[in-house]
Amino acid sequence: MRIALVCPYSLDTPGGVARHVTGLAGWLREQGQRALVIAPGTGRPAPDTLLLGRATPLAFNGSVAQLALSPAQTRRAVAALAGADIVHVHEPLTPGLAYATARAGRGRLVVTHHAHFEPGRFAPVLRVRASALPRRTSVAVSNAAASTARAVTGVELLIIPNAIAMPDPVSVAARRRMQVAFVGRLDEPRKGYSTFCALADEFPEVDFVAAGPGRTGHPRIKELGQVSDATLSEVLAASAVLVAPNLYGESFGMVLVEALAHGCSVVASSLPAFRDVVDDDRLVTWFDPHDTPGAIAALRMALSKPPVRGLARETARAFTWDVVGPQVLAAYERG
């Protein structure tokens, strides 16, 4: 099959949707499918990738999305759909690229909804936009994302989670017992980095490392900035615990899955999207969002527990491409 995968967000900026799309494309090609990724972005594109140029920032849901909004970009994208058997659009109600390609009526349409938020005053506009989309197979990455999508589209959705490539097992020698990691944007308040900073102040005997765009200069935290996938894997491999202190607006706990795949224990805020991924107290120590004392107590408890590397990795296997990829192919065949 010829499959066009449309990512609304720039590939220049790290993010869960972009990583999911490029990971899916790679898996599809391994299965002998022809997968083209279409997305905003600059620089030299990877093979079978159409980059549409510089993105335009748009603030929404406590974050800043980098979107392709210009008519010239959407025209190029729609033209690239010619001959596609499947057009798989991620976040189809997003302005610009995603909505234009979803409405284009080229090939069999599959859409995946990733976001979780309260539609509120945007609900009427989103319902109108959804009603203009052609016949499609609709997917959501989690129950949380499905609840948002269902509220504005009125359709039933398949639940197919995000996926990862399973890393090699981490040797005991590679693990630093007292390293604790944060993964995400340091400069995005909803990611809860201020809570991570409070933890660093509370545990002087523990090494703290943060991987993601932004810097605060906190003296107790090694802030790496934006890192490659390989470096991120090294960080998680060397960490005993990942802390995910996110406050709201999460639709899937990809960072939890990646940590478990590397054998980490997890300390996380008790968000519905996170509990959708793993609700096992042997693997995750929970605390309420915004509750810094609760986060301190949770980390203290996690550091006192014995390692659960084997169970963590086994749990993460449910979110590998070998498991999730065939579910996506089945969705393509439903249309």
From TrEMBL:
Protein name: Glycosyltransferase family 4 protein
Pfam families linked to this entry: Glyco_trans_1_4, Glyco_transf_4
Transmembrane regions listed in the UniProt entry: none
InterPro entries recorded: Glyco_trans_4-like_N, Glycosyltransferase_grp1
Organism field: Tessaracoccus flavescens
Origin superkingdom: Bacteria
GO biological process, one term: carbohydrate derivative biosynthetic process
Keywords: Glycosyltransferase, Transferase
UniProt domain Glycosyltransferase subfamily 4-like N-terminal: residue ranges: 14-164
GO molecular function: hexosyltransferase activity
Record-linked Gene3D superfamilies: Glycogen Phosphorylase B (3.40.50.2000)
